[in-house]
Amino acid sequence: MKYRLMGIVIILAMSTLLCGCWDTLDMENLDIGLIAGYDTPPSGEAGQVAVTALLAAVVEKDEKIGTYSAQTVGETRSRRAYNEPRQYTLSQLQVMLIGQDLARQGFRSIVDPNMREPRVKPSINVAVVNGRAEELLHFMAKKDLKRVSDVLISLLQTIPERAFVPRTSLFCLAADSYAPGMAVAVPVLQPANNQQGVELTGCALFAQDRMIAQLDRMETRSLVLLSGKKAHGWIPFSLYKDGQLYDEGTVFVANQRKVKVSRQGELIVFDIQVTLKGRLVEHAVVQHSSTLYEEQHLREIEQAVADDLKMQMQDFIEFMQEELRIDAIDITPYALAKWRQEITPQLEQSFIEDVLINVDVEVKLQNTGELG
Amino acid sequence: MDRTRFEITSKQLIFIIVGTQVATAMLSLPRVVAAEAGHHAWLAVIVGAVFPLAAVLLIVALLNRFRDADFANVSHQLFGKFLGTLLILVFVGYATVVQSVVIRMFTEITCVFMLPRTPIWAVSLVCTLSVVYAVSKGAKVIGRLNEFLFYLLIIDLLMIIGAGITQGTYLNLLPVGEVDINGLMQGSLKIVYAYAGCEVLLVTYAMVQHRDEILKAALIGEGITVLIYLMIVVVGLMVFGHEGLQFFTWPVVTLLKIPYSSALGRLELVFLLLWVTLGVRPIMNLSISASYAFMRAFNLDFNRYYAWIVLGVGTGIYVLSLQPDSLLQVFALADYVGYAFIAISLGYPLLYLLVSVLRRQKSL
User: Fold this and answer.
1) Hey, what domains does chain A have and what are their CATH numbers?
2) pLDDT digits (tens, 9 = 90+) for A44-92
3) What was the pLDDT predicted at A365?
4) How far apart are CA A51 and CA A45, in angstroms?
5) Which chain A residues touch B236 with a CB distance below 8 Å?
6) Which of residues 146-175 of B touch A (CB under 8 A)?
7) Half-sphere exposure of residue B100: CA atoms within 13 angstroms, side-chain side
């Protein structure tokens, strides 16, 4: 009886102290940030960073956009606190956009407050905006204010399922870009040429915390294939025989990568094997009508795709070694895994320039669908 | 006293040992070990396991020599009433300090990730009250709780493994050679605080129903702990690399924030919700050891005084847990706890064994 009484007293004491009470907040009192855009301040405004937040529609009918400029990200939050009636929360932040100018200056000032904040998920997707993030958000809002967050969140989350463009999380950006001798690729967004929405133009490369290059779609595809980032996408092909166009069309493939590293004396040699598996989507037949009865034709298409991609990848490797002078295709860890102590000091001194990178491409296609 | 309230099975002993060791320390473990041992941190986990394994072997070797293996009884037999009681009180004091560090770390993590506006004193108080209530029910309840909570731990571990496999690369663990022996040894010492807890065997030994199964159960418990720590450190290295680990205070929680989870949204919150129940296990286990040892030291009536002693130990833990000013102080205290653990878990059985041999008190 005594124990029972003691139990009841303890339970009553605990119930009066339920910890959630301190942290209770009504949804109506929250400004829920879904997308955050970071830019340099607009001309004429003081400070170092301008933060544009796209807020979820909680009480209002539409999503809301607001921009605050200040010296630091923390200060923009402080300014917001003086102006807005609700509490700004980052727990549902899904996308982080970095304006081109700020990307060139360096993103350290925006990554630190977001990685430090426990409510921000490091899995949120990051993109660079060709221009200003604030302008892109306003442009999208003019087209359809209800769907800005939907479009951006889905586009960046699902892009590797249909194009050879990397998906980059805040964690990848923070972790990989600070790895010595390595660069991280971030997708680039801009208003679409037809002004109807947004489009991805390729990717931007960051080393340390600065954008060092912007790649077009074809270069981005080479980077994705070489770095082994999982993606699916359509690749066009043209098949020539005796200098004449024999067939042309499109394949839809998924990629895989294997890396072997070896040494030839002092020279470190990377052998990258890229394998693409997929299906024939279409082919505009010139001389032949069926791949079903002539498997050789499918093999010829595979070879054409492989040769084309290999050439593009070799060009990219040359560009990476001679101009970027940094590992953008994530092969350094393979060398570190074998000779960590020896290689680590070289990473800061253009290690990637002095290695030999061979690439081989294999394409495996299936003829699916109802046509032969 | 109702002895059945303080009887546990050897199976429950396994879960008590795992429960006392695997809690808050595991969340920061990869960072702490990798800071010294680099990408060989996983090796430091194995080398560091020598301390708790030696402690278990010594404790069992010592208590096997006595028919009545009660810690208080053994202390009194070997050192007399005064010195024996003093040694028991030192153990009780040690257990209370360890619990206060664990509860504070538990509180800090809860406040950072889940209840940022709730004051530390409130979280700590609620946690202490629930521990006091559970401990007041006796060792049998604690044994069953440990067993049940162990299965929740498996769910948490599966989440960690899943995140590690999808987000990490084995390349961060290589090469296996090129071992920095000095760093490895430093790392092994750093991990010792995470192994603190096996010394509860000094007290729980007498509670186990079948004595012949104790060594096997204790070694299985230790083995499970080593395996869990090994897995956590390997996953941490795979995802962050040994340098990346240094940027995160609790890399195991951060690890669960990295994968995109469309169904659950925030994987780390699911993990932490389960972990909240797991985090109190060492406090319960050490608390019952301290309370029981205190009761036996003064031969107090369990029916009359046990609940009050548990409440007293709980109050001590609570007050001590509020003393550190910052998280850095808590981490510094955790380092001292590691050293105290070596002194208690190895020093006590060694000292007792030595005296026992010298006095030829083999009373089988």
Assistant:
1) 27-215 (no CATH), 224-372 (3.30.300.210)
2) 888 889 999 999 988 777 788 888 888 899 999 999 899 888 889 998 9
3) 92
4) 13
5) none
6) 169, 171-172, 174-175
7) 24
pLDDT over 70 percentage in chain B: 98
Locate all alpha helices (DSSP H) within chain B, ordered by sequence: 10-21, 25-37, 41-48, 50-63, 71-113, 120-136, 139-167, 181-190, 192-195, 201-204, 214-244, 251-257, 267-278, 281-297, 302-321, 327-342, 348-358
Q: Residue B200 has what DSSP assignment? A: G
Q: Quick check: helix, strand or coil at residue B101?
A: helix
| ipTM for this model | 0.86
Q: Does any CB of chain A come closer than 8 Å to the CB of residue B178?
A: yes
Q: Hey, what domains does chain B have and what are their CATH numbers?
A: 3-356 (1.20.1740.10)
Q: Write down the pLDDT at residue A286.
A: 53
Q: Is the pLDDT of residue B200 over 90?
A: yes
Judging contacts by C-beta atoms under 8 Å, the chain A residues touching residue B171 are 333-334, 336-337
pLDDT digits (tens, 9 = 90+) for A140-171: 998 876 788 999 999 999 999 999 999 999 99
Residue from A219, A185, A221 nearest A205 by CA: A185
Partners of B65 in the β-ladder: none
A16–chain B nearest CA distance, Å? 10
Helix, strand, coil percentages for chain B (3-state, nearest 5): 80, 0, 20
Cβ pair B117:A334 closer than 8 A: no
What the block records as the tokens of A147 is 């769907």
Residues of chain A with pLDDT > 90, as a percent, come to 61
Q: What pTM was computed for the model? A: 0.90
Contact A277, A254 (CB under 8 A): yes
Distance CA A225, CA B118 (A): 48
A61 CB-contact burial (10 Å; exposed 0-12 / middle 13-18 / buried 19+): exposed
Looking at CA atoms only, how far is residue B356 from chain A in angstroms?
40
Find, among A144, A135, A128, the residue nearest to A184 by Cα: A128
Q: How far apart are CA B284 and CA B286, in angstroms?
A: 6
Residue A44 DSSP code:
T
Give the separation between CA A235 and CA A256, rounded to whole angstroms.
15
Q: Which residue has the tokens 């009433």?
A: B81
Q: Is B174 helix (H, G, I), strand (E, B) or coil?
A: coil
If you measure CA to CA, which chain A residue comes closest to B244? A175
Which among A116, A113, A35 is positioned nearest to A76, based on CA atoms? A113
Chain B residues with beta carbon closer than 8 angstroms to that of A11: 133
* pLDDT given for residue B343 in this prediction: 92
Distance set, CA A311 to CA A233, A238, A300, B162 (Å): 18, 14, 17, 37
User: Phi first, then psi: what are they for A151, rounded to 5°?
Assistant: -65, -50
Strand duo A183-191 + A49-55: pairing:
unpaired
